[in-house]
Amino acid sequence: MYELPGGGAEPDDMTLLSTVMRETEEETGLSVTKIWGTFPGFEYETSKSKAIQFNFLAGVEAGTESNVRMNPKEHCAFVWVDKTDDLSRYPMTKNMSQVVSDALNIIEETTFDTCGI
């Protein structure tokens, strides 16, 4: 199943944004350079508890696909998608597919500055 980088806060995370930055680095090897904002998340249940997913639109360091270093304990592949991609080609939960669609819509409709976090 495809999903976006994410995870829970750890005791050393001072803020929710610290969690975003740490999880992105741990799961992709990419450093967050900018957080542009949030967009709707959702609640879900795991085998252990209820959870809330918060969604952030973040920029990462520029580079090539070779800069991506997937954490093999969490992911085995990645793909960059854009608005022209058929998301049904990628197995995702209904909620995750909606999050990706929402993010692509925001990206398409927004002009981003390139200043840092």
Structure characterization notes:
The chain has 117 residues and is of the alpha+beta class. It has helices at residues 16-28, 94-109, and strands at 32-45, 50-60. The radius of gyration is 14 Å and the shape is globular. The model has no long low-confidence stretch (mean pLDDT 88).
Say how many strands there are. Answer: 2
Ends distance? 30 Å
CA radius of gyration = 14 Å
Q: In this structure, how is the largest beta sheet organized?
A: 2 strands, antiparallel
SS summary, helix count: 2
Q: What's the average pLDDT?
A: 88
H/E series, N to C?
HEEH
Which structural class matches the secondary elements? alpha+beta
Total of domains: 1
- How are the strands of the biggest sheet laid out side by side? 1-2
Protein name: Nudix hydrolase domain-containing protein
Pfam families: NUDIX
InterPro entries: NUDIX_hydrolase-like_dom_sf, NUDIX_hydrolase_dom
